[in-house]
Prior knowledge:
Elements: H1 2-8, E1 13-17, H2 22-32, E2 39-42, H3 49-59, E3 67-70, E4 73-76, H4 78-86, H5 90-96
Parallel strand pairs: 1-2
Antiparallel strand pairs: 1-3, 3-4
Amino acid sequence: MDVLTTLTADKPVVIFSKSTCCMSHTVKALICSFGASPTIIEVDKMPSGQQVERALIQLGCKPSVPAVFIGQQFIGGADEVIKLNVQNKLAQLLLGAKAIFIWSR
């Protein structure tokens, strides 16, 4: 899990993704629609991608991507992020992590 801590440190939003995953694309688009600029880590394009993917699975990500961290806290995958958005809680998390600075409905 140290690899995840290192990759998410000091970043407001980190999305672990695979370049061919449609749900990863959806989550990235959703978070960007708030005006956030997340750090995107494409695990299928990095040399240590399998190690990162194993760490995500150990954390409870099934499937391993997308996996979203906001304010260095693991939020979950696509289902959890979409649920937070439907509940109008995603913007508040992004504000709290200083990923965005203003939001009004």
